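Field reference: sequence -> structure
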Amino acid sequence: MAIKNVTKNKGFSLIELLIASSVGLIAIGVVGSVFLSGYKSANQRSLELLLQQDVNDALSLLKQDILRAGYQSGASSSYIISGASNIVTLSTLGSGDQCISYAYHDGTVQHLRSFYSKDIVYSSSILVKNIKLYSTTVDGKNMSDVCKNGHSILDQNQIEVKEFSIVERALSSASATSKLLTIKLAASLRANPSISTAKSIQIKTRNWQ
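Structure field:
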């Protein structure tokens, strides 16, 4: 009768299982950490892009509208707000913030505009600085009506304006004098102030007298 060799199958020992489990947990931890880090980075970048887009849109709105300053359909002279000495008027508010105001006339009605930075009461105890646009299409308005009322052109619940400044420089030629406006806008997210941006544009007023 032949005797068969019997080989005993040995399983994993407890120590081997513990080592394997530890290595697996470390690997999962590393992969999870990399994933979370990438997710946070992508999320922050997305918020940065959204903030930059909102600021770009606000500056684009200002530029497109300011280029209309002084326009008067069918007239040989520029349109100036009653009581103003210039087509585009810069003034300083009580808080030290600047306000830019102007008007244009489409041949039917006066369009009075003003953009200014102002502290807005976000809640009972929090002040958020934002940019306000005052706009009316009612004839007869004058300088006493600008820089007082308006609505935010940025989402005041999400964005806080850190700086809204305007610098003007006269541009003279043999026939006329225009202005070069440099407008700077800096803003950050209320929920995460570390996410911020600052941009500027230059506008040459064109409907001068």
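Note: The chain has a mean pLDDT of 80.
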